[in-house]
Structure formats: structure tokens, C-alpha cells
Write a structure and sequence with these properties.
alpha/beta, 336 residues
């Protein structure tokens, strides 16, 4: 077909920021299913503090995009009641450090109901949490609390790192009959990428291999995937082949994917923003060591933040794991 006779383009791919991709995923789910309700502090008229829900209340009305009181426990408790009545609520926790008032509702009720009812009662609730540092926020506005929820049986815990995954994973989370903690890396909200708006919802139990390597495997999720990719690029300039795996799902972990990568490289470094003490990296290190002991050429190493509260903004860059700290861990892994 010549250019003169081609019909209109049928591409469904567009460039979106990660925040806009979450918005698009919410809009698609709300369009397809009128049981989907969005609720949280300032999610309606304001569109959320990060503008992730911008325009949804105008399109779907105040009955489906609900501005809640400043009460996280009430937000999640109301969502549980709505789910019991057949709705599929999506809650926004405005900042990661604000989730703790809702901790009892999440851990004691939301995570337990399906097991308590022997599977007869399902709670399809999604709790969106902007996570991590990097935006110069004040106290209580920067946390990496994923290990609390990944440790809680009955919850799915996922963490997106790219616009494409944000869109597909949000749609999948809303379709899930399990409660989902959905972490969104707040310092990546403005990163852009290609999004296929007709792509199928992503699996919520599969990691993504961003690049393969033969010397070392970096394992990251959410905000540190970009850091890991930059470190892999820098290591390549020195002649090292470094693979990068994006966990995407923290509970359950995609152990087969981790095992395959560990068996290829024999060296693994886990990178996350949270403290390494009792963090996700410790679980991955133990799991990979148990599964791949004879394939490993070095211990599984971890790069994370220090075992301290998130610091003031002016020293945040020294607190968060960066490319140099990841490269140091790569060097240590290669030295064995």
C-alpha cells in the first residue's frame, strides 16, 4: 500500500508519564466496570496531590470518585464494606507515611477475610500508595514500608517502575479478587514512556527482565529500577555484562525468574530504597541462596538505605541508594 492510499493509523501506543499511565489505567477500569470506585483524600476536585486522579471525578461523578475525610482507617474500612457489597474500590493513601492509621484495617481485616471465610468472601480492594523518597518531602511523606505488607499473608503487593507497567498492572490489580497493595514510585511519576493502551493487563506474579547479563544480576523494584539500569550501563562501559530484573511483584515473589537469573550469572545484587535490615532484599538473598547455592559464585549482596528514619531533604541524596553504591556492590560481587 502506498502512502497515498494508507488508511488512518490504528496504533494504540502513546507516550505518557508514569502518573498519567496510572490515571489511564484507572479510567479504563472505571469505563469497563461501573463497580470500580476511587476514593481518598483530595482525589476528586483536586485530582490528588500528584494529580494522578485528575479529571476522573469530572468524567465519572462524585459518587464514583469520592473525596474522603482525612482518615486513612476510615478510607480502608469503608472500602472493605463496599467490597463486601460487590464494589471494587480503589483507595489512595496520599503519602506512604500516612498508611499507618489504616494498618489495623489492612492487616487484621482486609488480609484475613478470604481465609477466615474459607474462600467464600472476596475483598477486591486496591490500595494505591505513592512510595519512597527523592522529592524533598517533609517528615512522614517519604517511607519505604513494603516489607510490612509483603510479610502479611493474604495481600498481594506490587510495585510498578514504568508507565507501561503502571497502566497494565493497575488494570490487573483492579480485576484481582485479592486485596492489592499497589506501590507507585513518587519520584518517577514524571518519567515518560510508551504505553500500549490496548495491551492486556499484566500478570501480578511475574518479574520482568529488563536486560540480560552474564556477570551479575541486579534485582530492583519501583523507584530503584531506573537506578539499577543506570548502574548496568555504567558497568558495561567497564566491560561487565550486568542484567537487571524488575520484581514488579513483592508478594508473591517470582522465585523461578530469580533462580534462572542467578543460575546464569552466579552473582546477584538486590537494590531497594528501604533499609536492608529485615527488608525485601534479605528475603530474596535467603531464597536465592537456598535455591541456587551451588550455582552462586558470591553471596547475594544488598544495597539499600540506612537503618534510620528518612532524613531531611537536604541530605536525602546521601541516604538513598545511588549508582555509585550499586557499582560498589557489583565490584564486591565480582571480587569473590
Amino acid at each position: 500500500m502506498t502512502a497515498a492510499t494508507q488508511g488512518p493509523s490504528t496504533t494504540t501506543t502513546t507516550t505518557l508519564t508514569l502518573g498519567k499511565a496510572v490515571n489511564a489505567g484507572l479510567r479504563r477500569a472505571m469505563t469497563e466496570d461501573d463497580r470500580v470506585i476511587v476514593m481518598g483524600e483530595d482525589v476528586g476536585a483536586l485530582g490528588g496531590v500528584f494529580r494522578v486522579t485528575d479529571g476522573l471525578q469530572k468524567e465519572f461523578g462524585a459518587d464514583r470518585v469520592v473525596d474522603s475525610p482525612l482518615a486513612e482507617s476510615a478510607i480502608v474500612g469503608t472500602a472493605i464494606g463496599l467490597a463486601l457489597r460487590g464494589y471494587r474500590p480503589v483507595c489512595e493513601i496520599q503519602f506512604d507515611g500516612f498508611v499507618y492509621p489504616a494498618f489495623d484495617q489492612i492487616v487484621s481485616q482486609l488480609a484475613k477475610m478470604r481465609a477466615r471465610s474459607a474462600g467464600r468472601v472476596k475483598l477486591p480492594v486496591v490500595i494505591r500508595i505513592p512510595v519512597g523518597g527523592g522529592i524533598g518531602a517533609v517528615e512522614h511523606h517519604s517511607e519505604s514500608n513494603e516489607a510490612y505488607f509483603a510479610h502479611t499473608a493474604g495481600l498481594r503487593v506490587v510495585s510498578c517502575s514504568s508507565p507501561a507497567d503502571a497502566y497494565r498492572m493497575m488494570r490487573a490489580a483492579i480485576r484481582s479478587d485479592d486485596p492489592v497493595i499497589f506501590y507507585e514510585p513518587k519520584r518517577r511519576y514524571w518519567d515518560k514512556g510508551e504505553v500500549d493502551l490496548e495491551a492486556e493487563p499484566a500478570s501480578l506474579d511475574r518479574a520482568r527482565v529488563w536486560r540480560t547479563g552474564t556477570d551479575v544480576t541486579l534485582v530492583a523494584h519501583g523507584p530503584t529500577v531506573k537506578t539499577a539500569l543506570a548502574a548496568a550501563d555504567a558497568a558495561a562501559e567497564d566491560g561487565f555484562s550486568v542484567g537487571v530484573v524488575d520484581l514488579r511483584t513483592l508478594a508473591p515473589l517470582d522465585v523461578p525468574a530469580l533462580r534462572r537469573c542467578a543460575e546464569v550469572t552466579g552473582r546477584m545484587v538486590v537494590v531497594h530504597e528501604a533499609s536492608t535490615y529485615l527488608g525485601i532484599g534479605a528475603e530474596i538473598a535467603a531464597t536465592v541462596t537456598e535455591a541456587c547455592f551451588y550455582a552462586l559464585k558470591a553471596p547475594v549482596l544488598r544495597v539499600g538505605s540506612y537503618n534510620l528514619p528518612y532524613p531531611p531533604a537536604k541530605v536525602e541524596d546521601d541516604f538513598l541508594p545511588d549508582v555509585d553504591r550499586v557499582l560498589d556492590a557489583i565490584d564486591r560481587a565480582l571480587s569473590f
